[in-house]
Amino acid sequence: MKNIVIEPKVDEISMPENLRVGLFVAEQRKRCSKTGCNAEFYGFGFGQSPFQVPPPLERSLGENAHMGQYSAAEGIEELREAISGFNKRHFSLDVDPSRIVVGHGTKGLMYTLFSIIGGSVIIPSPSWIGYAPQLRLHGKDYHVFFMKPENGYKIDPVSFSDFLSKLPDEQHLLILNNPHNPTGAVYSKEELEKIAEVCRAHNTLILADEIYALTTYRFENFTSMGRIYPEGSFVTNGLSKDRSAGGYRLGSCILPENCSEKLKKDFTKVAATVYTNVSTPTQNAAVTAYEPNEEIEEYFRITREVHRIMGTEMSQAFNEIDGIKATTPEGAFYFLADFNDLSNDLKLKGVKTSNDLARSLIDCPHHITTITGDAIMVKPDDFSARIAFVDYDGKGAFNDFRMDPPKTRSQEAVFARDKAPRMFTGTDELKKFVERIKKR
């Protein structure tokens, strides 16, 4: 049989982070087996919540396992009503269930959205790895807006307005991830208002990717863009991060206020064409995840506190390494580590580009997995790395925090080191990497 012809655009797609990290580790283990290296690997690459699925959701999935029939492409009515109430309670969003579409995770919803919305897309950098590959699959134009460390890796409205004024005069779609993967930054209400003002002036819609919203450490500081720019925002969220149910593959999208019936029908039509419907047992189980439930509310409170402690202590440990500057996360479970002060030393050791940084870190004997380079959409000469701080026993940390929460900063430091020893050992290994890089 002749070689099977593959569409060229597939070669333009970046490997998803879970596969990329897994392949990196597998390739390095193979090299290690040939050299006799048996040093430990340290996982700062893959961003998956370390906690268990909330027990009420887990039980509900089992109770609904018999639901084998097809269901509505836009989501079952009971679930959309529950999501509407959830958004009212947590985000002060008054959303009619008819504006809510349930999808196969937020990735699936974004794919649908990119299929139907005209115009180009704007991706702020640094960024999550998943947006650009979908746009390339669609053959859709996109532009990268580079954010600066002096602005806290947030969109500066003045610079953004200037950026938009230089683009063709057409509809655009800005992707706004808040809290931000990979820096952990959280936008204030005032910052969102200024961005919305610019978007209104430049015919720009917003894809508000708020998948980490409920992981905001000081949750009272979080504001949904759906409140600020309701007529122009598509707000996505789901179960994967705040309820640790990434494998359930269930997300939701709130369509803009006063959107047309045609938009609703087109969204549903494309969704039905691509994936028919989200798993019916999962949808019925998810009703439990969105209805009022004190056990799940306690779960939110504890998990965001543990994330806060781990993020604060880990970013501080990185900042104590000479030559590295780390952001201090305010939400999610990532921060950005800036190695650019070491760029000359890195280049002398053969680390020429930001993609090379991840390869160098995972090499023997350090074995540190990170996400760098085009995987976070930074320039080739930007030596930054996304650090995920989730390599610990989430169940144990959750239960210990619930039984005896640390009450002081020093107790929090002890808690972090006690519950996440591998991460701190990995940080010690990173310090050795930096010391080796600096040697002439």
Describe the structure.
The protein has 440 residues and is of the alpha/beta class. It folds into two domains: 8-51 and 296-438, Aspartate Aminotransferase, domain 1 (Alpha-Beta Complex), CATH 3.90.1150.10; 67-291, Type I PLP-dependent aspartate aminotransferase-like (Major domain) (Aspartate Aminotransferase, domain 2, 3-Layer(aba) Sandwich), CATH 3.40.640.10. Helix content is 44%, strand content 12%. The chain is built from 16 helices and 13 strands. The chain has helices at residues 17-35, 55-63, 77-91, 105-116, 131-138, 157-165, 189-201, 225-228, 261-275, 280-290, 294-319, 343-348, 354-362, 394-403, 409-419, 421-438, and strands spanning 42-43, 100-103, 120-125, 142-146, 172-177, 204-209, 233-238, 251-254, 325-326, 334-338, 368-369, 371-372, 384-388. It has a seven-stranded mixed β-sheet with strand order 2-8-7-6-5-3-4, with helices on both faces. It has a four-stranded antiparallel β-sheet with strand order 9-10-13-12. α3 (77-91) packs parallel to α10 and α11 (294-319) crosses α15. It is globular, with a radius of gyration of 22 Å.
CATH-level-2 architecture of the largest domain: 3-Layer(aba) Sandwich
Give the N-to-C terminal Cα separation.
Answer: 54 Å
Q: Report strand %.
A: 5-15%
Number of strands: 13
Strand order of the largest sheet: 2-8-7-6-5-3-4
CATH first level of the largest domain: which class? Alpha Beta
Helical/strand content category = alpha/beta
Largest sheet: 7 strands, mixed
The helix/strand order is HEHHEHEHEHEHEHEEHHHEEHHEEEHHH
